[in-house]
Amino acid sequence: xxxxxxxxxxxxxxxxxxxxxxxxxxxxxxxxxxxxxxxxxxxxxxxxxxxx
Length: 52
Known about the structure:
Layout: E1 3-6, E2 22-25
Antiparallel strand pairs: 1-2
């Protein structure tokens, strides 16, 4: 299987000990639940602000 499908509606990024909430699936059976946006570690600075 190329993908793992999360079977719960939990939105946490990491589910500890949650082996029963995932299921192996091929790419044809995988149903993406939407795009999960993670915050950038180093966000780009706003160019309209003035420097120090």
